[in-house]
Amino acid sequence: MRLFCLVPATALLLALPLRAAEKRAFHIEDLYRLKGVQHLALSPDGSKLAFEVSSQDLKAATRNTQIWLLDTTTGTTKQLTFSGKADTAPQWSKDGKTLYFLSSRAEGSQLWALDLAGGEARKVTAFEAGVGSPKLMPGGNQVVFQATVFPEAMADGAKQKDLADKLEKGPVQAHLADTLLYRHWTEWRDFQYSHLFTATFGGKVEALTSGKQDYPADATTPSSQSFDLSPDGKEICVVTNMDPVPARSTNQDLFLISLDGDRTPRRITDNPAYDGDPKYSPDGRYLAYKFQTRPAVESDRFRLAVYDRQTKARKVLTEAIDNWVDSFQWSEDGKTLWFTVQEKGRWPLFRVEVATGKTTRMLDGQSIREFQVSPDQKAVYLSKTRVGEPVEVWRYTFEGKELKRLTDFNQAVADEVDIRPAEEFTVKGADGKDIQVFLVKPHGFDPAKKYPLILNVHGGPQMMWSDTLRGDWQVYPGAGYIVAFPNPHGSTGFGQAFTDAISGDWDGKVQTDIAKVADHLAALPYVDKDRMGAMGWSWGGYAMMWLEGHTTRFKAIAAMMGVYDLRAMHGATEELWFPEHDLTGTPWDQAAAYERMNPSSHVKAFKTPCLVITGERDYRVPYTQSLEFFTDLQEMGVPSRLIVFKNDGHWPDNLRSMPVYYNAHLEWFQKYLGGAAAPWKTEDLVRNLAFGSAGK
Fold first, then answer.
1. Helix intervals (H) in 69-184
2. Are strands 527-537 and 451-457 parallel, antiparallel or unpaired?
3. What are the two backbone dihedrals, phi and then psi, of residue 593, each rounded to the nearest 5 degrees?
């Protein structure tokens, strides 16, 4: 096995980066030179940290993800896997001698094992339907995992493959549905359900659940912790939704499945709203989990609770925190839970004592993506980023309060390219509320000059712009634009009342906020008020479609994956709880509200040139919404362009489609706002001509 070593972090921090004035502007290609760092896994003794490092090839449209290892004592790193495929999701054996990971190098997604003492990685599962979210059983030769299967085949891998081949390659190609939620995100149900299995390494696969019910329900959301295995390996806690119409319900509950006897799932939560993300305490006594209190409200506040398996009692730990709990982790002694919270564009780190409920803020002012607390609780290892700072692995020591970077995967790009930081300020919005705004100035900024500006409205709508590096926060400033990112009413991180304020009011306070932010930006001495554009994605796309019929202050607009006709949106989206809450009900019961907030009711006022982008496999906001919008723009004689990504859903594919996305925006805004030219012709990118043998 080959090893590739980096110098210790203490040495790399001695290098002085170039000043921003000596660097060159950020380009689309630079975004694809940056490496991703994710899925941190700390060894049981805290001496080693495993994680993924992903790299991308823009022109080949390929991604390579490999496992790396950091020695927490010396600070040195080494690459562990070299497959050239996707090696992901590292996890440790109990003795810390073996690292397990998922790999696509052979027979789909399977679990592999790598002995740290030496030798090559070996494949330990071979289930035809693939292995997802594996959890190691005590004893080290068995795993529990999730797979999407045909219920009539279950653990029969050969039958699974036969049924899949017939469905995908047979002469009849159709979808069939008898109930709602027949498709989700980018996938149709097509007779398949998520189920749990056990597999002995190199041997038998056995089903733990069965039937036409998803175990777990969150299998389509990879970021969720949808099931967990007890430390003694005798029980599983899994999340599912038993409501008769899950398309209208967020009522996921926790169910226990015994691995020793009767495997009938046993419900342990009766909350009519969401319960999920279960994690057993190290001693197995408690289950920590997140929950909401309002049924069918996906944007309700996420709280953290524990369930005592002995007393059957539940205890809420974060009621006093008026923001969403995100990720969380048990301490090694099981007495404490560590967690992050969405707060004003960042993710600070907290700890809470399970016995007393005492909560302490441990690390503030950071956008923590992932974290792992050391076994002695003296330090935390985290991946973090800022607007002007690519992601790396860091360590923070609680006693010394020292935050130290441990890796330099993106330092070469940062030394060469001007990765612009963000400034932050507030603007008085609707009801006199402070609206947070992040602003990124262009490369080579001169305060004596005036620049074109792009106002970017986020989706959700219940989410927040955060202090993290994103492509659109760098590509456009690299082309000479000021970019602004407001967190208006509806954003998370500013208290639940602020988040709730947008529901049923899409045309109200949030639109006032956007207008007041635009007024403030137009008055800045370095902004050319006659060259202002706007863009938005998902709900932000809705905002652009709304602005199209209500103002001419912007010289160009770009609307991506936007909601345009509210009645049609209700009839075609998959998760009905969202429109029925945010639009105050069904269109037949709340016709006036649907009409009042409907962008498609204002077609005759359309005048602003508009770029429209969508994905044909977007089942959240179906692409027909954008087709209708584009048709109406054309009917009104408004200059407009439509791009439909054939194989993408609500988010374009990062490698195949996002370069087109960025380039199309640069081309569109250059035409109407006068920034730098796009590097390629968008038409050539769409026709796959830009990266041919002739180059650009």
1. 157-169
2. parallel
3. -65, -45
pLDDT at residue 203 in the model: 87
Residue 444 tokens, joined: 């080579």
> Minimal CA–CA distance to 90: which of 56, 53, 119?
53
Measured CA to CA, the distance from residue 573 to residue 185 in angstroms comes to 9
275 pairs with which residues across the strands?
Answer: 291
**Residue 45 tokens, joined:** 């003794």
Considering the entire predicted model, what is its pTM? 0.94
Q: How far is 420 from 336, CA to CA, in rounded Å?
A: 38
Q: Which long-range contacts (CB under 8 A, 24 or more apart) does 412-415 make?
A: 413/30, 413/33, 413/34, 414/17, 414/389, 414/390, 415/15, 415/17, 415/18, 415/23
**Mean pLDDT computed over 286-293:** 98
Q: Locate 15 and state its tokens.
A: 């290098």
Would you state the structure tokens that stand for residue 72, as one six-digit string?
């927490």
More confident residue, 37 or 83: 37
CA distance 655 to 649: 14
- Tens-digit pLDDT profile for residues 618-650: 999 999 999 999 999 999 999 999 999 999 999
Q: Are 35 and 44 in contact (CB under 8 A)?
A: no
Alpha carbon distances (Å) from 448 to 14, 20, 529: 35, 18, 15
Q: Which residue in 564, 571, 681, 553 sits closest to 631, CA to CA? A: 564
Burial class for 291, CB neighbours closer than 10 Å (0-12, 13-18, 19+): buried
Which residues, 6 or more positions from 35, have their beta carbon under 8 angstroms from its beta carbon?
Answer: 53, 54, 55, 390, 409, 410
Report CA-CA distances (Å) from 546 to 483, 556, 576, 625: 20, 14, 22, 13
Nearest CA to 260 out of 155, 153, 138 is that of 138
**3-state SS assignment for residue 383:** strand
Q: What is the mean pLDDT of the chain?
A: 94
And the tokens for 193? 């359900």
According to DSSP, residue 86 is labeled B
Nearest to 435 by CA among 513, 518, 492: 513
Residue with tokens 């607007």: 387
Residues in contact with 191: Cβ distance below 8 Å, sequence separation at least 6, in sequence order: 150, 167, 176
DSSP conformation letters of 305-374? EEEETTT--EEES-TT--S-EEEEEE-TTSSEEEEEE-BTTBB-EEEEETTT--EEEEE-S-BEEEEEE-
> Do 291 and 242 form a contact (C-beta atoms < 8 A)?
no
Question: What are the CA-CA distances from residue 396 to residues 380, 393, 400, 451, 689 (Å)?
Answer: 5, 10, 8, 39, 47
Containing 278, the helix (H) or strand (E) segment is: strand 275-280
Distance CA 455, CA 550 (A): 16
Beta-strand pair 266-267/275-280: unpaired
Residue 396 has pLDDT above 90, yes or no: yes
Residue 594 has phi, psi (to 5 degrees) of -60, -40
29-44 burial, b for 16+ CB within 10 Å, e for fewer?
Answer: ebbbbbbbbebbbbbe
Answer yes or no: is pLDDT of 693 > 60. no
> CB under 8 Å to 173, separation ≥6 — which residues?
none
